[in-house]
Amino acid sequence: MNFVIDTSLCSGHGRCYTLAPEWFDADDIGYGQVKDAPVPDGERARTADIVAACPEGAISVKEG
Amino acid sequence: MSSMLERAEAHGLPVHTFDLEHDERLGVDPFAVWDEATKVGGLFYSPANRGFLVAADFDTVRHVLQDHRVWSNLPSTIVYTKEQVDLDVPPLTMDPPDHTRYRRALAPLFSPKAVAHLEPRIREISHELVDAILAKGTCDFTKDFAARLPALFFLEWLGLGTDDVDRMFHLAERATFEFPTQQERDDIEARIDAIVRGAIRDRRDDPRDDLASAFVQMRAEGQQIPEDIVVGMAKLAFIAGQETTSTQLGYILWHLARNPEDRRLLVDDPSRIPDAVEELMRFYNTGGSSGRVAKEDGELNGFPVKAGDRIFIARCGADRKLAPQVQLTRGGVPHSAFGLGIHRCIGSHVARIEMRIGLEVWHERIPDYRVPDEFVASHRYGSFMQQLLSLPLELEPAAR
Q1: Domain architecture of chain A: domains with CATH
Q2: Per its UniProt record, what Gene3D superfamilies does this chain match (chain B) (predicted)?
């Protein structure tokens, strides 16, 4: 499972890389980027929190 | 063309008088007014003043703020007052593609990496303010700390110096908390224009290590930016850099002063402060937004929007509706206190540092404090924000 950021919606709130720096990073102007680090299945509850915490609704999870 | 009220009635949209300009309850308990409004529905019509739609749940707020094709900021106007008053503070008062060009130029100056180096200075100012409060022995938090920290820090960073901090803070207050006529608004903006234009012109010949110099050197798509637009953006920074963070800090401390168990969480483990700030911004969202005006026909929650329709974005109510209690260690609940969509607060990363450092220093030096029993909170609501007017505290400083 991996995170996906809809870059047309991201406006740089920075919640993702603050809450989960192991999976997200900030680009040069503070917009979120997904790191190349798989999300273990055991982290499902935390994953749902991160998706919900994005104020723009820009984050989703891709299975597989 | 049918009026907003006629269309609201024809389409079963609730009608609820929501009057930010005249409702005196906003001075007593503004949050009750927000909570009452959000119970009406996610979208309703308020006949107050010139009449306007109100977006009053998170999904509707988010939809409107993300849908910049229908909901324009040009002209940027205060939608909910009796008189139409337009603003000129770019790039807030722009739509794409102009907005996109200038926002891109500004963004690198305010990114988390670009502002991290400001932390030591913010910490230093916070300590100086606490020193002064402890020397005096009494404290009105809103005036002695919340209003001072952002103004002292931001005016210095902008390059205006702090000799004239009281007058400059007062101008930012007027721009935020008055319900002005167009003439009054133009007058406030002209005064701020004169101050920041002086600094911008000065830095063209004599660049320094400050934000005014960075504004001068800024390029949009490789092109020099016209002076009026640079000055307009500096004007917005001048207003938003002072008053917003100050107002938010006042509400945060008000909560912590009345909820000792929440305060204890942060004193025991200051690493909880960033999450606590987000949660308290959500619950005490200072609210302001001038709203939007539809530039073309569209649809919102099934309601047929016509070009020219006004909408107010009830962000405070919408955020509170997401969860009716404060829980400082909460994850997974968003807020719109920094706005949403393309106009989201560009200074948010600086504001977060100011609030975090301010709260760290305060609780390290003054871990125990309380609101006097006889204190009765009073608030004011202006064209952009609501504010706790004063917060007297009884202090128990840490032993040093």
Answers
A1: 2-62 (3.30.70.20)
A2: Cytochrome P450 (1.10.630.10)
